[in-house]
Specification:
Elements lengths: L1 H13 L5 H34 L4 H11 L3 H8 L6 H4 L7 H20 L6
Helix pairs in contact: 2-3, 2-6, 3-4, 4-6
C-alpha cells in the first residue's frame, strides 16, 4: 500500500490539471488501463479452470466476480471470519482483497488531492 500510494501521489504531482473534470477522468483512465485488463484476464482464466476441476465453484467464482467490482475484501469478510481458514486457502481469489482495498481508496484519493490543492499545483 505504501509503494502504491507513493506511485499514485508522484503520478498526480507530475500531472497538474486546470479543472476537476480533466483531472478525475485522466486519473480513472490511468487506473482502469493499469488494473482492469490483467484483472479481467486473471478472473476469467482462473474461473474457467475452477469450473473444469473444482466441485465447489459457486463461492470461488462469486469472490472472483466481486474482485472485478473492487469489493472482494468485503465479500471475503462476510464469508469467513478467519482469513487463514481452510475455506479461504482453497479460494484462488482470496489474495484480491488487497486490490479491493486499493480500488476503494481510489474513490477517495482524487477528491482529497483536488480539494487539498495537490492536484492543482497549489
Amino acid at each position: 500500500f505504501v509503494l502504491s500510494g507513493y506511485v499514485i501521489c508522484s503520478s498526480i504531482s507530475r500531472r497538474k490539471s486546470k479543472n476537476f473534470r480533466e483531472f478525475i477522468t485522466s486519473f480513472y483512465a490511468r487506473r482502469i488501463k493499469r488494473l482492469i485488463p490483467a484483472l479481467v484476464f486473471f478472473v476469467l482464466s482462473v474461473s474457467l479452470i475452477i469450473c473444469l476441476f473444482s466441485p465447489n465453484t459457486f463461492g470461488q467464482i462469486n469472490t472472483g466476480i466481486s474482485a472485478l467490482f473492487g469489493v472482494s475484501n468485503i465479500s471475503l469478510f462476510w464469508k469467513s471470519k478467519d482469513y487463514f481458514s481452510e475455506l479461504m486457502s482453497l479460494n484462488p481469489f482470496t489474495h484480491t482483497w488487497s486490490l479491493g482495498v486499493e480500488e476503494q481508496f481510489y474513490f477517495l484519493l482524487p477528491f482529497l488531492a483536488w480539494i487539498s490543492g495537490f492536484a492543482r499545483g497549489k
